[in-house]
Every structure is written in structure tokens, then in C-alpha cells.
């Protein structure tokens, strides 16, 4: 399947921004199940300072705002060819060793809520894949998809306590619980072609767990299945903060409005 993606992020400031710096993880890479055909980034109100691959092998672009900018627009567009890998990404690669993905973070701490949710799965389900799918099903039952109850800094523990959340929360809970069950696990950000609309106001997130004999396998808790050709992986990490599409800071511009428009459609 060939997917066409357009991702536009616009910042408008009430007052000029004296200095601004952003890290962008918006460039997908060719890897198992996907081949980047074309990809380009353009910036108005700023410029790319440098680009590099981080320790998760994410492609990172560091941009600076123009001095006294009142508006900044970042636009990415391209085409990616995808294949059906049944959620299997494959063997581990990269700079970080596999054991690193069993490390807990502030957002993926396995506290009493996470441990209660994962309790008994090792005894109830004998094989790895059915066990991890059972975990995914438990999460969406316990924490149904609900907009507005969480935010970017909500932890897995807090999302369970809230009783609702979005894809970011589901991914954090899965990662925390999978690690508690003994699996290396990581957070994934990227794109999903939806069946009911073309325009979206946010990118998508899911999780991956490392299974002996298969390697990394994806689980989209929010939708209840493993990634298929409608998905494009962009960045991975221990949690959202490692894989956030855009993060950074600025000085000045007291009032800020940000708008995101994402188009994902089949070519």
C-alpha cells in the first residue's frame, strides 16, 4: 500500500518570539514493512540547524525560530510504501541494547494499578503473543478511549486511575505492563490511515514488545489489533518524551496558538 502523508504544524504568537528551538521527529525511515519513497520538510519562520539520528535511531531535525517571529509553520509531506507484516517489525537493532527497554520511566512506572492490570496473565495465557494480545484487551476494557481526560504528562498509573485515555495513554500502560511481565517494550509514534476521515488533528501512538523468536511486535491498544499496512512508524523510545513528534522551548510570544493538520490517504 502506498500512503500519502501531509503533516502541518502552525504556531501563532501574540508577541514576537525572541528565541525558539524545537526538536522534530517527523521523518520516517525505511525499515521492515515500510519504504520511504519521498519525504520533504519545509519551514516558514524558522530554519533547520542540524539533523542527526538519536540513540533510538529516530531521525531528529533541530530547528530555530527566526528572531522576533510571530508565526512558524512546519510542513512535512511524502509517500511511504507499506507491507503487511502482521505487526512484526523483526529483530532488534540500534544503539540501545535490548535490556534498556525494560527500564521504567516516570510515564511508564509499573505501580499498583499497572501490576493489578497485568496480574495473572503469565499463569492464564501460556504463549507470548496471545498473552500480549490479552494484555491489550484488558487495557482497553479498563481504560476506554476518551478524549480530554489526560494530557501529555499523564503517566500510565494516572491514566488507569482516571479510567479513560487516548492512544498515548494506552501505549504507556501497555509498555509499563509488558515490562512488568518481563518483556522489553517501547513506545511508537507515527501515522495511521483512518477509514472514516482523511484529516486528523494528531499523530498516532502504539506500543511494541520484544518476543523471543519474532523480535519486535506492535500492539495498537486503542484499536485492538496489531499494525497493518495503514500504519507508518516514525519514532520509538522508552515513552512519549523519547518519540514526541515535536518538543522544545521558546522565549517571548506571551500567547501561543498551535494548530495541527494531518492528512493520511492511500495513493
From TrEMBL:
<protein>
    <recommendedName>
        <fullName>Transglutaminase-like domain-containing protein</fullName>
    </recommendedName>
</protein>
<dbReference type="InterPro" id="IPR002931">
    <property type="entry name" value="Transglutaminase-like"/>
</dbReference>
<dbReference type="Pfam" id="PF08379">
    <property type="entry name" value="Bact_transglu_N"/>
</dbReference>
<dbReference type="Pfam" id="PF01841">
    <property type="entry name" value="Transglut_core"/>
</dbReference>
<dbReference type="InterPro" id="IPR038765">
    <property type="entry name" value="Papain-like_cys_pep_sf"/>
</dbReference>
<dbReference type="InterPro" id="IPR013589">
    <property type="entry name" value="Bac_transglu_N"/>
</dbReference>
<feature type="domain" description="Transglutaminase-like">
    <location>
        <begin position="159"/>
        <end position="223"/>
    </location>
</feature>
